[in-house]
Write a sequence for this structure.
């Protein structure tokens, strides 16, 4: 878009200068309609000021935008057509009579020193008799010139033209306003100062340069995106306000720095890929977890290249073959983009990583690497302890059932499952105490012990160990023992007796 603005501005300014030149000569020819020579522009200069001019000369100066002083307008007019125009209006004591031809060969300037004054004449070299259509052409050009002048004056960006020596030969209203802001007062002397001395005039218009300006106090900073485009022997320069773009970039940079500092403290490895699937952000934890060199990560590798390097470093599960590897990469990318990728990677060296994929705005994807080796090791040890504990209680002759503080069956052994008729090791685990009670009621003769146990297991305090005797439907006698545990848990132990409770009590009495 910036390049288009520069190009359009070049066309506008170039067309404006061409229209002005044509208007200048057509005006002269119309003013002397019937003569064979076009009316020249005559100026009388004394003490560095234009003291007089003929009608054509005054008309030419009136239509030059920019400086207020007539001598500065004349200098600007000469700069557009002649090389080293300062010689033509230099003081009489520094230069004598001069005759010069314009760069395009269509104008001749004659300087004649008369005492302390200078008589300057500009005349058209091209011969010819004015045609009857000149007045219509002149009016069309005047209309076009006014339109172009209004367009450049209303442009919100700075626009100026400078010659090969760097001297500004034309500037729009926005440039003049910028000078006033920079210097604290309007600039009424020509040539105009250069606001952007660091602008590289050899750069193409597509290669923008961001340059800042300060106000007269050197405080407030204004940023511009500057462009340069050749227009004939001169350069057309534009400076488009870029304050909002700079503020946006600063906010984004500060936000990125904040994220980077935050991510640097995380133990989880983070890799963010943009919509082109290039690595654009990572944290130090990723280096530690993947053992990838920092120069590789800073080179912005692709997602495929990143994962391929992980495979080479044996930091991801080894695929069966290359085809399955490529398939897994495609599936990983698709799942990460949907936010559904979550896998546990068991690495050859025994480490375990939990890898998740998360979508981000603008099509970006984030991969998070979490080392869960210690957690997995603890889980395996805990599972081994559970299996060992289960094996121990399974070897017991007594039937054992443990209830949680919430009243759910948490643990049973083989003897319990044989006693109460459940085949699976975890078939009863997790059931509510009410469901367990109904099973006990169904397989035993009526007994108040079951209701008492239900109330006992649901209390959280004032509990003591107690016992009860129950008879099964098949005639077996059970000695029941109920023991409170820490945290509100309850242990129920059942022992099958070979004698009836009465016989047992009789033997104990004897």
């Amino acid at each position: 878009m910036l390049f288009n603005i520069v190009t359009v501005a070049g066309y506008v300014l170039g067309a404006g200068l061409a229209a002005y030149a044509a208007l200048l000569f057509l005006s002269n020819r119309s003013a002397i309609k019937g003569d064979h020579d076009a009316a020249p522009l005559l100026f009388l200069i004394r003490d560095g000021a234009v003291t007089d001019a003929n009608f054509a000369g005054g008309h030419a100066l009136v239509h030059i935008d920019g400086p207020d002083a007539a001598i500065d307008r004349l200098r600007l007019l000469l700069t557009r057509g002649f090389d080293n125009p300062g010689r033509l209006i230099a003081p009489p004591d520094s230069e004598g009579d001069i005759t010069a031809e314009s760069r395009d060969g269509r104008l001749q300037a004659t300087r004649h020193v008369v005492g302390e004054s200078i008589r300057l004449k500009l005349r058209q070299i091209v011969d010819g008799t004015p045609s009857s259509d000149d007045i219509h052409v002149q009016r069309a050009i005047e209309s076009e010139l006014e339109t172009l002048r209004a367009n450049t004056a209303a442009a919100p960006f700075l626009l100026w033209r400078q010659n090969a020596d760097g001297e500004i030969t034309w500037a729009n209203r926005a440039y003049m306003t910028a000078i006033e802001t920079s210097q604290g007062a309007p600039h009424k002397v020509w040539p105009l100062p250069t606001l952007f001395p660091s602008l590289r005039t050899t750069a193409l218009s597509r290669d923008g340069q961001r340059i800042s300006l300060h106000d007269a106090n050197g405080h407030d900073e204004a940023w511009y995106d500057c462009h340069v485009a050749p227009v004939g022997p001169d350069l057309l320069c534009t400076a488009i306000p870029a304050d909002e773009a700079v503020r946006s970039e600063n906010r984004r940079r500060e936000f990125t720095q904040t994220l980077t500092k935050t991510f640097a403290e995380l133990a989880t490895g983070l890799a963010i890929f943009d919509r082109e699937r290039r690595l654009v952000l990572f944290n130090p934890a990723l280096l530690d977890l993947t053992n990838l060199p920092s120069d590789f990560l800073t080179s912005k590798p692709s997602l495929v290249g990143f994962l391929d390097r992980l495979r080479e470093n044996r930091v991801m599960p080894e695929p069966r073959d290359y085809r399955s590897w490529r398939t897994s990469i495609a599936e990983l990318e698709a799942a990460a983009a949907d936010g559904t990728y979550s896998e546990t990677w068991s690495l050859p060296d025994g480490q375990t990583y939990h890898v998740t994929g998360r979508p981000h705005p603008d099509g970006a994807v984030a991969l998070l690497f979490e080392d869960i080796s210690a957690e997995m090791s603890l889980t395996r040890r805990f599972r081994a302890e559970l299996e060992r504990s289960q094996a121990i209680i399974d070897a017991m002759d007594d039937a054992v059932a443990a209830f949680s503080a919430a009243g759910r069956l948490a643990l049973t052994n083989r003897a319990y499952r044989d006693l109460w008729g459940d085949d699976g090791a975890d078939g009863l685990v997790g059931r509510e105490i009410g469901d367990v009670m109904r099973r006990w009621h169904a397989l035993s003769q009526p007994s108040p012990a079951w209701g008492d146990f239900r109330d006992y297991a649901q209390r959280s305090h004032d509990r003591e160990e107690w016992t009860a005797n129950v008879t099964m439907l098949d005639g077996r006698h059970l000695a029941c023992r109920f023991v409170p545990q820490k945290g509100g848990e309850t242990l129920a132990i059942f022992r099958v007796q070979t004698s009836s409770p009465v016989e047992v009590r009789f033997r104990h009495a004897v």
